[in-house]
Amino acid sequence: VEASIPEPQREAWTKHQVSGFKDKDEFESEVVRHVETTLARSMFNCDESAAYSAASLAFRDRLILEWNRTQQRQTFADSKRVYYLSLEFLMGRALDNAMLNIGLKDVAKSGLSELGFRIEDIIEQEHDAALGNGGLGRLAACFLDSLASLNYPAWGYGLRYRYGIFKQEIIDGYQVEVPDYWLDFNPWEFPRHDVTVDIQFYGYVHKVQDESGRFVSRWEGGETVKAVAYDVPIPGYDTPSTNNLRLWSSKAASGEFDFQKFNNGEYESSVADQQRAETISAVLYPNDNLERGKELRLKQQYFWVAASLYDIVRRFKKSKRAWREFPDQVAIQLNDTHPTLAIVELQRILVDLEGLEWDEAWNIVTATFGYTNHTVLPEALEKWPVGLFQHLLPRHLQIIYDINLFFLQSVERKFPGDRDLLRRVSIIEESQPKMVRMAFLAIVGSHKVNGVAELHSDLIKTTIFKDFVNIFGVDKFTNVTNGITPRRWLHQANPRLSALIKSKVGSLDFLKDLTLLNKIELSINDKEFRREWADIKYSNKVRLAKHIKESTGVSVDPSALFDVQVKRIHEYKRQQLNIFGVIHRYLTLKAQSPEERKKAQPRVTIFGGKAAPGYWMAKQIIHLINTVGNVVNNDKDIGDLLKVVFLEDYNVSKAEIITPASDISEHISTAGTEASGTSNMKFVLNGGLIIGTCDGANIEITREIGENNIFLFGNLAEDVEDLRHSHTYGNHQIDPDLAKVFEEIEKGTFGNPHDFASLISAVRDHGDYYLVSDDFRSYIETHALVDEAYKNQEEWITKSITSVARMGFFSSDRCINEYAEGIWNIEPLKTQTKDGTGKDE
Ligand code: GPW
């Protein structure tokens, strides 16, 4: 490190090496310095918001010093890096996470207290970084935490959206979307105005002969937009490793505005160009498990992918290695098909710009990429009209045609004469209009394809990607079951539970090796331990009850059974099944005598989640939940026996309050539709039980914790197709209890029945695609079992402790190690070695 500074200056530089605060005193002095200088506020006028900013800046300074060292170590070690390309990173808050990962939360707590602040209030000041929709984006955030914690050389690449996912307000029971402008003050990012890339769109392609007489394609004309890098440091837990998340922001290529135009008096046009450029990174598309084929979305994808690849290639070229060594230095993981253009872009760079032969380039490309699939739902699989490609990325379309041609030729060689197979697997769908099938392109251009839970990985091999298994062989397809970071989802969200577990495990090592949780099973009969376990759950429920009161006005009893379903609102996730079940419970209670009702188990049913703004049915579901809540919560006959609440604006920081407070949570997707789910893991890790279908990771959770500790119900994935087939439209026999629920809605008990007609007719008249009626009976009966089980609190606590003890498998650390070994072929870097390279001595 020092060797790179010339001798005459070295002394001055090393003498002033910065190290970041180490104790409470230094922390306080950093906070005061930032208040008075960076924030230009007087220390006599420091409110909680300024204290948050200053504390964050003090931590950011520390992070960036570690970040510098980590990057230096990685550069010197010169070993393979992994690049995780994701259009979504649902990071949530950063301050608490940074304090805990670095191990200085106690220092910050007492420092802030001496300065007159409660650390909880300061943490609360932070606005969530909500650059994602749901599970896919949060998975990317958990992966970044694990990559840094395990010392893997890794970068994330994404887009710096000016507006993250919208803020949800509930007004008169309806979802209203409000823009989320989160960048007003964001201390966690470093603008890198010197790291920019010019990105080209539109234009035309022509062939020219180079010096050697070879024909090469030139992509010219069109317009150029500038990508500017913003870096977000990602601290690992209990390690100095601090990785980078690089987010690209779009700007007009001419800088502020086009001076040529400006000087010619074309003010409006020059400002319009600037706005058009900035639009690319302006908003996150708010769709979860749905693709809408909009031009701006494709522009976002290319902008981000091209900037990231330019950056990766630039870094590789500094090492002066031969191109064939690229896959030894670089692994790129595609988080779903959103970054699939990276495959085409790398092929373009190698062939058009670097002059490699097609085959040599293609071998490098396929050895570099891995593709993760996150859904089998047809409406979520990306397809782009060929005409749109032709217009926006003409050279890329040519390359896609060539990739397809060589691919189909290889298929023809392997399966001669099978015209229907060629049609089925072609990257170009011969529809009207023709479409580019991005998932097929991702499979053809990668060396590994993985699903995210066992059932899901089996399903993609036997359904949507079946032909590709025959073509490429089964070994190209693999499973990596999702995981979650125990740092945020146990230690940060549930500090008391983490401390109790620590007292039994002997240290916090379970946060680094989650399988150590199994040690708590030895204390299953320890009365004091069990009492404390139950007390922690209760106090987490008290905290949630307080939040419910403040945000909805509804009072709930913390000793009632808390039943939670929080996730994006989607028909396949079946919040409608849940609310129909709630109505059934309400009708049952209403029909009972006051004497009978005394035997009922009191419940609070809690919903949360956003609907995509254009998803009509999802919005109807939210409306029904709210109208049912209105009726039930104000019914004097019912009192505390049943409360129904919808928590608005569910996000990562709300999840940190909700997850530790659940007794039971609902993961009730139609079997075969939820690829994995990850909140199921979070709830169980926090001592909540779950009711769920045999879908996604629920199946593996059951295998790990034991089937006595989970409430499974409903039809199996293998039977779904036949059941759908049996629902002949029009005379489909629905469950009689569900029919009574529909009758009650149609009577107007929950407001204007017209509002909910589409929810009912989807089940009754339009084939019940999601099997709500087929699963209703078993759902209701299983909830009765939940009520019974909850009455036996001792048994319940045993189930809760046993489940947590057996959740070790679901750490994202395990998951990342599987990717590293099976897909990326990378190894962790030592953080300290004698020669300073980070490599093994
Ligand atoms: F459709 N997932 C998500 F596959 O949150 F792209 N958004 C999405 O758009 C998609 C998937 C996509 C989720 C899956 O629904 C969930 O089952 C899974 O646990 C999660 O991705 C992470 O793998």
Distance, first to last CA: 18 Å
Mean pLDDT value: 96
Molecular shape: globular
> Which percent band covers the strand fraction?
15-25%
Task: Count the E strands.
Answer: 24
**Biggest sheet, strands in spatial order?**
7-10-11-4-1-12-13-17-18
Tally of individual helices: 34
Helix content: 40-55%
Structural class: alpha/beta
As residue ranges, the low-confidence spans are none
Task: Calculate Rg over CA atoms.
Answer: 28 Å
Could you say which small molecules are bound to this protein? ligand GPW
Largest sheet: 9 strands, mixed
List keywords for this structure.
alpha/beta, binds ligand GPW, globular, six-stranded parallel β-sheet, 841 residues, nine-stranded mixed β-sheet, single chain
Describe, in plain words, how this protein is organized in 3D.
The protein is α/β, with parallel strands linked by helices and 841 residues long. The protein starts with 6 loop residues before the first helix and ends in a 17-residue tail after the last helix. It is globular and about 95 Å long. Helix content is 48%, strand content 15%. The model has no long low-confidence stretch (mean pLDDT 96). Ligand GPW binds at residues 133-136, 139, 288-289, 336, 374-375, 380, 452, 482, 674-678, 696.
Topology:
Layout: H1 7-15, H2 24-36, H3 48-77, E1 81-85, E2 89-92, H4 95-102, H5 105-114, H6 119-124, E3 129-131, H7 135-149, E4 154-159, E5 167-171, E6 174-178, E7 190-201, E8 204-209, E9 215-220, E10 223-235, E11 242-252, H8 259-263, H9 267-279, H10 295-318, H11 326-329, E12 330-335, H12 341-353, H13 358-368, E13 369-372, E14 383-385, H14 386-392, H15 394-414, H16 419-425, E15 428-429, E16 435-437, H17 438-444, E17 448-451, H18 454-462, H19 466-472, E18 477-479, H20 486-492, H21 495-505, H22 527-552, E19 561-566, H23 575-591, H24 594-597, E20 603-608, H25 616-633, E21 642-647, H26 652-658, E22 664-667, H27 679-685, E23 689-692, H28 698-705, E24 711-712, H29 717-726, H30 736-747, H31 757-764, H32 772-791, H33 793-805, H34 812-824
Parallel strand pairs: 1-4, 1-12, 4-11, 12-13, 13-17, 17-18, 19-20, 19-22, 20-21, 22-23, 23-24
Antiparallel strand pairs: 2-3, 5-6, 7-10, 8-9, 10-11, 14-16, 15-16
Helix pairs in contact: 2-3, 2-5, 4-20, 7-34, 10-12, 12-13, 12-15, 14-15, 23-25, 23-30, 23-32
The chain binds ligand GPW.
